[in-house]
Amino acid sequence: MMEEKKHIAIIGGGPAGLESAENLFDLGYKVTIIELSDSLGGKLNNWHRLFPDRRLSKEILNHLKNKLNRNIQIFYNSTVIKTTRKEDKFFIELNNSSSLECDAVLLTVGFDLFNASIKEEYGYGIYDNVITSADLEYLFHANKPLLTKQGKTPEKVAFIHCVGSRDEKVGNIYCSSVCCVTGVKQAMEVKQLLPHSEILMFYMDIRMYGRFYEDLYLEAQEKYHVQFIRGRLSETAENIDGSLILKADDTLAGCPIKVNADLVVLLVGYVPSKYCSSLSKMLHIKCEKDGFFAPCDTHTDRNFTGSPGIFIAGACTGPKNLEATLADARSASITIHKYLLHVPVLEQINKVG
Amino acid sequence: MINEGKIRVWKDYQKEIADDRYFYVRSCIRQNFFPGAEKTFLRIMRDELRKDVFEDPRHTTCTGIAYHTDIVPLETIMTTVARQFSLMTENGYENIVPSCITSFGIYTEILELWEHHPEWEEKAKNYLFKSTGREFKKPKNLAHSSDVIFKYRNEIAHLAKHCLVNKETGQPIRVVEHIGCHYSRMFPQKGIGGAEYPFVLTGLAEAFGGEVIDYPERRACCGFGFRQYLVQANRGYSIACSKKKFESMAPYKPDMIITNCPGCPYFLDRWQYVISEMEGTTYGANGYGIPVLTFEELAGLMMGYNPWDIGLQMHQVSVEPLLDKIGIEYDSHDKYCDAEGIFMGKPEIPEILKFC
Amino acid sequence: MIKPDYFTQLKSDIRFNEGLHACINCGTCSAICPAAAFYNYDPKQIATQVQSRNEQVIENLLKSDTIWYCGECMSCKTRCPRGNTPGLIIMALRQLSIETGFFAESEKGRQILALKRVIGSNILNYGYCVHVEGISSEMHPEQGPIWKWIRKHAEKVYNRLGANYGKEGPGALRKISDSNLKELDQIFQVTGAYDRFDKIEKFSKKKATEMGYNTKIESMDPYFLMIYRHNSEKHYKQKA
């Protein structure tokens, strides 16, 4: 008699969930995806073009969905309401009365975007012409015209870096890593849409850490004449005509400045998904002080939570770009595979000195 | 402007304000420049709302101006504040209501200091006892007098004889609100509405039917700057800050400015006069200035009190254009009379600024 | 005994510890600072200069006009993403500048004598920081003609408006009785306010002598008027 396939439940059907589902299936396991919404793909559904090469997000989304074997079971509109451990197995109950038994759980719940209205001084949700990078991406994706609330074509667009990141005031001191490259990408996209517009970037640092990201920075300056001002935005105020006045310091020139803009785009950072907190309590696993899941070892074991059979991958373990998320998902697949094959794991790294 | 966004912010910054038995401590600046405002506060609270507002004449300045001009150390102001608390405790009160915004800021900072560093509360106890033999208990509730008026704004509006509406056009009076720096900047949670969109004056103006205007320099300091005004050589800073605000608000054509700090209305009033003399510019209609009222003065006007019992005759910028807009009647002769109704003579008229 | 370095002395001020964590030069404070708009002043530079812990740099600050430009409005506190407050750093620097006597080396620092004389005496004589009797139209022409009228008829004007002008008992501008002023006097004694007053006088007198003023007159009137009025006009941002 053939031994029954081991079963892995993947909580979260975004890129990390999809990539690991496909890999685990190919490794010979039974896989179930538990997805919160009515569609797969997570945030990939919301983006238009990806950095660094500006390919359409749809390409990756379709690729990830298409390579999913049809034997992978998917629960849509589902959340986990209870988990019970029975020796080596997990019994998972869902909100729609379904339940499943599995041998390992992989958490790929992704992230949320910072709620920009918390940064009151920037005026999101208060002033008409302040939007977020997510709002802008939606406009591109839905092919909507880029106009001010007053129906005018913006002549001057300002991008604001570090909204909700590197900010003790809002409780997130970490850097969200991808907002800088997102901003530069979007700046070029706006300039392509509105060739006569002036684009300004208000930044503290330009963090173009990834491969070919620096090329985008060069292109933004040389081809699209995007202006970069080193000064974090202090305050947005609104003029009588609905345009905005930005107060910042030009730290390199050494003087405070007030700049008018027709449209302000806030580059919002990552915050942990609310499911990080609720699942960590339910499964008795740890989160770090920044609210994202804690890996077993920072360098060598990023997919294991330390709790047998429970694994993590993707943005729920910290801000990362798409390629890192996909790589992390493949890494989690191997880690889970070795776990289910009972490959012995080194208990802890020996400390030196 | 999306109002829902502002309302969301205000919901996040609610604060507890005691509902009765207030120990009132006066403001040095308000007593000198707007004594009628304090009288109006007491009249509304005691006579209209029937609240217990107690004043111990032994209370002094909190020394806030001395502290912020750096002539006394933190230990001194802390102990002076402890003495105020001691008077409050001695009289059996637990809720303290300062009239001055700098005082409110100071009391908040000191209470926070003692909360996070209890050894400083010990220091205060020792200093106070050593210097005066007094002991104190911390107040259970600290609220600025504008917080208290805000709390009862609907009750006051209900009793009011007037509303903030232009009687000719039926349009709401256009109000610019100006919040004192030390109200909520240090501790946004201690101010109604927080630091960016404070609600304490907006709520009051709206309760009376006024329309509150946002304008780019709304959050800017009026420019008191303590030493920047008090020393003549520095006064350029102070007037420049106020001028920046006037230039920014002028396109919105406000009918009035409302303030809660006692210093701000002084500066926003007098600097309009000085700017008119220096540059010939006036910011109100027809060569007048924009009337600047304290929150107590506004509440008193709405209640139908005689403007000259509220103290509006002490302003350099005439308030009559605003009174006319609202339809408040006033006796121009009574403006310059004393409490017995005896005429004291008129002040000189400024050269440029139109004056009643 | 080796005196502790300036940074260590600053660290002993609780407001300094509240005010300086680490500055990343983002400029959100300078963007909003009223003094930065008007004066040659940059609050983020205050933070970065002090956090360098360099003795000479800090000493230069203590002797400069720079630390006296701040209006203590605390706008900086509302914006800093690192939780710093340049306004509190300034208060600690000013205190150290007074303790060391370095305040007397700068035009703006020297002004503190005028503040001590006027505000200090108001508090000790009246129990108020400001009092109508001390605010003359000559020293405050910006008060306008209305103030002349108010001062001329002070008691009557104030008493119509709920004051108890100069009398004992509750009311605005009441006479705060001597026993209460005595308590303030004791507080000033015990908490070190008089020590500070003495330092301000001592270092000012020394500087006035150096500058050639006649300090034999107790009140040092010509020096007092000079520091109250003199503005070298080199404090402002130049138009481009």
Q: What is this structure, in a nutshell?
A:
By secondary structure, chain A is of the alpha/beta class. Chain A has helices spanning 15-26, 57-66, 133-141, 179-193, 213-222, 274-283, 322-340, and strands at 7-11, 30-34, 73-75, 80-86, 89-94, 99-102, 104-107, 111-113, 130-132, 156-163, 198-203, 227-230, 235-238, 244-250, 255-261, 263-268, 270-272, 310-312.
Explain what this protein looks like in three dimensions.
The complex is a heterotrimer of chains A (353), B (356) and C (240). With 353 residues, chain A is an alpha/beta fold. Chain A has helices spanning 15-26, 57-66, 133-141, 179-193, 213-222, 274-283, 322-340; strands at 7-11, 30-34, 73-75, 80-86, 89-94, 99-102, 104-107, 111-113, 130-132, 156-163, 198-203, 227-230, 235-238, 244-250, 255-261, 263-268, 270-272, 310-312. Chain A is built from 7 helices and 18 strands. In chain A, strand 11, helix 5 (213-222) and strand 12 (227-230) form a beta-alpha-beta unit. In chain A, helix 1 packs parallel to helix 7 (322-340) and helix 4 (179-193) runs parallel beside helix 5. Chain A starts with 6 loop residues before the first strand and ends in a 13-residue tail after the last helix. Chain B has helices spanning 3-12, 28-33, 35-48, 64-68, 74-90, 101-116, 118-132, 145-151, 153-159, 181-184, 200-207, 227-230, 235-249, 263-279, 295-302, 307-310, 320-326; strands at residues 22-25, 53-54, 95-98, 141-142, 174-178, 211-213, 256-259, 292-294. The mean pLDDT of chain B is 96. In chain B, helix 3 (35-48) packs across helix 15 and helix 5 crosses helix 7 (118-132). Chain C has helices at residues 6-11, 14-19, 28-32, 34-38, 43-51, 55-63, 75-79, 86-100, 107-110, 112-126, 145-152, 154-160, 178-190, 193-210, 221-229. The N and C termini of chain C lie far apart (50 Å). In chain C, helix 10 (112-126) runs antiparallel to helix 14 (193-210). Chain C has 2 domains: 6-108, Fumarate Reductase Iron-sulfur Protein, Chain B, domain 2 (Orthogonal Bundle); 110-229, no CATH class. The chains are: A alpha/beta (353), B alpha/beta (356), C mainly alpha (240). Chain A binds chain B through residues 117, 120-121, 123-128, 235, 237-240, 245, and chain B through 1-2, 4-6, 8-9, 194, 196-197, 214-219, 251-252.
Notable features of this structure?
heterotrimer, B: 356 residues, alpha/beta, Glutathione S-transferase Yfyf (Class Pi), Chain A, domain 2, Rossmann fold, 2 domains, four-stranded parallel β-sheet, 17 helices, 8 strands, 46% helix, globular, C: 240 residues, mainly alpha, Fumarate Reductase Iron-sulfur Protein, Chain B, domain 2, 15 helices
